[in-house]
Amino acid sequence: MTASTYAPLPIDAPWVVLKFGGTSVATAERWRTILDLAAARRAEGARVVVVVSALAGVTDGLKALCTCASSEREATLAKLVERHRELMAQMQLADATEAERWLASLQALVLPLPSDEAAVHGQELRGGAPAPGGGSHTAWQSRGRGPSPPRYALGASPRLSRGERGYSWQAAVQAHGELLSSSLGAVFLAANGLPAHWLDAREALLAREVPFLNERARALSAQVQADPDPAFADALAARGEVFITQGFIARDGDGHTVLLGRGGSDTSAAYFGALLHASRVEIWTDVAGMFSADPRQVPGARLLQRLDYDEAQEIATTGAKVLHARCISPCRRARVPLLIKDTRHPDFEGTLIGPLPPEVAPSVKAISSRRGITLVSMETSGMWQQVGFLADVFAAFKLHGLSVDLIGSAETNVTVSLDPTENLLDSDVIAALAADLAKVCRVKVIAPCAAVTLVGRGMRSMLHRLSGVLAEFGRERVHLISQSSNNLNLTFVVDEGMLDGLLPRLHELLIRAGALRTDDTALFGPTWQMLYGGGMAPLAAPWWRGERERLLELSTAQAVPHAASGHLPPQAGEGTAGTPRYVYHLPTVRERARALRALRSIDRVYYAVKANAHPAILRAIAQEGIGFECASPGELDVVDALAESSASPRLFTPNFAPRDDYAQAVERGVALTLDSLFPLQHWPRLFAGREIMLRVDLGRGLGHHDKVRTGGTASKFGLPLAQLGEFLDLAREHDARIVGLHAHLGSGILDVSHWSTVCGQLASLAERVGSVRCLNLGGGLGVPSHPGEADLDLAALDAALAEVKLAYPQYELWLEPGRWLVADAGVLLARVTQTKRKGSLNYLGCDAGMHVLIRPALYDAWHDIVNLSRLDEPASMLYQVVGPICESGDVLGADRRLPESAEGDVLLIAQAGAYGESMSSHYNLRPLAEAAVIE
Ligand code: ADP
Ligand code: ASP
Ligand code: MG
């Protein structure tokens, strides 16, 4: 369709601003996309302003032209000319006159003819006198209606002599990137049926006076005051329907060209959006939107589908280059929504930035980083509280035109950071500042540093989830920690060298800690890898999705008589409602068991029975050739009761158990693990002439929660290494032979290197003991629970252990996982009882509470929760999912996105196969949950 086929727009038709970044304007193919998008918006009834960047890399080239040796200038210019001519050829531009005029004007600016007059003449290719200074947009109206647009000086003043190339000249040179791309675009759009008026952005965008801005910033990082201006909008509407203009450039009060700072084309679009009070500003770039971290560094970063202005501002300011930091506030002030989209994939959803979306889970939204931060530390020898001290200090910053970002203070020290995106820093400025500061305090400049920032609304309420992140920083020196007073960010300033690999680690830790709520699908979209990674296999759907009908039937079935399951004490109540009910999927158990058995470095696997002692699960595990690790005589009884397990090896690993437990185990002939001096000191006869194993405490704990860390003095498990000598003496004295060493540091460990480290440590201890045959590495194999968390890499685990084994081939390696084998195999079905609205919160009550599944209350554990009755309905509500127990901690899941739910709906709580049923209780005298099995 050509523009002539469009019906004319009414005068009050809405405006849409489309901004295309450097890669989005760099090829003819992208220009076809621009054409399609602009034409589509026009066809939808909008007036369109297309704002373009320079072709990717061209601003860098122009900057190089400004700074390179004059001998290199010609060659650098030639490359830029070539680049544009190539694109013109690709675009099959019929008329290149305009673009050629800009190339000529550029040449005249950078390669002046023998006299300066000639250089000025070169500029005059675009016209002579600067526009009258200080014109407002309303003033523009009267000037702008004329047939030829007003002209602006490109920067070099006539007084400029050769070699004296000021900031204004630099601005003029760099402006050519956008002037060229917009000229090419105008011809291309018109030639392809969409007549677009070429608009000189400097007509509309006038830099404002910012106090204390130095000359350099005034020319290269200017700011524009842009508020909705109906007169401007009307004047433009009178002139046409579709426009193409430049990003990055504006004019100053004298009519000279100024720049808006690197990456500033986004901000140009925002200024146009605000002036025109557009219905939307669309930022088209090379990535689908704002992600939870820079996707080039963190492929697992999630697309942020919705953000409010404040969060987007914070993410942009703290380092996410995808949006220029200054582009949010004009849109926020004018209430214009911003949409970020990928030019190569217009079908990808993108990020919508607008007013605060209602009801969202508090979450860290993103983690960003900035390099090149300079810290200025000022030692004050007790002057901190002295009246006027800070005023003196900050006066020095003001004098040097430096804006301070972060501030940390102590009794005798004030440390501030200078951010290079807001300050045009160079060593001369810093040296001059330091000299002035030295008059009032002792100064230390620390550089280069990096600032790493966590952004999210309500950061304070997430602090308790950040222990893993703090531990990560705790390994290195943190110069400054700052929490913003708007409660939106938490920033750590560290040495720049520490950044390598840090962001992916932190991103993963934040997801695992439930601080980055990737489960909230209303906010967090797919990962960058899912969108662009190509090779990544889609995540396998959990088994229960395919068993939905069966599970719904089970939720209403009568309770299974206890004789059938036969392992739990009698019920306290009737329990005939069908819920709460655990359902176990044996194929999943078998699959997990086989995966462990396939590990070549592991000689024996024992299942930690405490995770789930359901007989059907124990049978399946025995059939797969896995042994049993029991922590009590009761667990030994359950295993002994099964015919299938008669040949299975057993381990008994009690902790602070009574003497009788050990005596029973000895009688049964079960391998026994001691973890303190006490049994050998007080009951030596039990162990005389026997083989025993020893559980040691390697001095540190690991895991997903304090309560599952089982190493270190604060934990009750294991023999401290300092007592090893004494233990060996006692064993020798009482003729007990130590044949195995055991260590288990905690649960939910996803870092493979943990096991190889433990294995290496145990092996070297074993050499000291002498009689050891096997090293038991414990369990703790992590099962990721949050969407987006990476799985434990079993192959990597195998490889890491194989390496240790190569060094110590004399030892068998054992593992004793519980959770890893059964967690995913179980779900808990619960029925909705009641709903309640309280303040801004929606409560969803169900018949399973902490008596049935205590992990959320005890460990802050995160279990996915879905409404099985309404699995396909949109998840439109944010719920606090709670149980019927008289405890405020009876919360199964906070801030869960679910369909609107009603009494009687069946909820499914996922990953409940481990430490669910086995930790359940009769609390409040409620009945225990039933269990059913899918074979
Ligand atoms: P354009 O040239 O279109 O203006 P930019 O290069 O300025 O594009 O911005 C897009 C780039 O921003 C992305 O390619 C990405 O590498 C980078 N980026 C940094 N942080 C983020 C983030 N949190 N989300 C998305 N992109 C980011
Ligand atoms: N071309 C300018 C730059 O590269 C502005 C922009 O692309 O946003 O910084
Ligand atoms: Mg950009």
Descriptive key words:
eight-stranded mixed β-sheet, 35 strands, binds magnesium ion, binds adenosine-5'-diphosphate, 21% strand, binds aspartic acid, alpha/beta, 935 residues, 32 helices
Which structural class is indicated by helix and strand composition?
alpha/beta
Strand content: 15-25%
Major sheet: arrangement of strands: 3-4-2-1-7-10-11-9
Helix content: 25-40%
What gap, in angstroms, lies between the N and C termini? 61 Å
Average pLDDT, to the nearest integer? 88
Number of helices: 32
General description of the model:
By secondary structure, the chain is of the alpha/beta class. The chain is 33% helix and 21% strand. α23 (615-623) links the parallel β20 and β21. α4 runs antiparallel to α5 (116-123), α12 (309-317) packs antiparallel against α13 and α29 packs parallel to α30. The radius of gyration is 34 Å and the shape is elongated. The structure holds adenosine-5'-diphosphate, aspartic acid (ASP) and magnesium ion (MG).
Brief summary of the model shown:
The protein has 935 residues and is of the alpha/beta class. It contains 32 helices and 35 strands.
Topology:
Elements: E1 15-20, H1 28-43, E2 47-52, H2 58-67, H3 70-91, H4 97-110, H5 116-123, H6 137-144, H7 167-191, E3 197-199, H8 201-204, H9 215-220, H10 230-239, E4 242-246, E5 249-251, E6 257-259, H11 265-275, E7 280-285, E8 302-304, E9 306-308, H12 309-317, H13 328-334, E10 338-342, E11 351-354, E12 366-379, H14 389-399, E13 404-409, E14 413-418, H15 427-437, E15 442-455, H16 467-474, E16 478-483, E17 489-495, H17 502-512, E18 524-527, H18 528-532, H19 543-546, H20 548-554, H21 562-565, E19 581-585, H22 586-597, E20 604-608, H23 615-623, E21 627-630, H24 633-640, E22 650-652, H25 659-668, E23 671-674, H26 678-682, H27 684-687, E24 691-697, E25 719-720, H28 724-733, E26 737-742, H29 753-769, E27 774-776, H30 794-807, E28 812-815, H31 819-822, E29 826-838, E30 841-846, H32 855-859, E31 865-867, E32 877-882, E33 891-898, E34 906-909, E35 930-934
Parallel strand pairs: 1-2, 1-7, 2-4, 3-4, 7-10, 9-11, 19-35, 20-21, 20-28, 21-22, 22-23, 23-24, 24-25, 24-26, 26-27, 27-28, 30-32
Antiparallel strand pairs: 5-6, 8-18, 10-11, 12-14, 12-15, 13-14, 15-17, 16-17, 19-29, 29-30, 29-34, 31-34, 32-33
Helix pairs in contact: 2-3, 2-7, 4-5, 4-7, 6-10, 11-13, 12-13, 22-23, 29-30
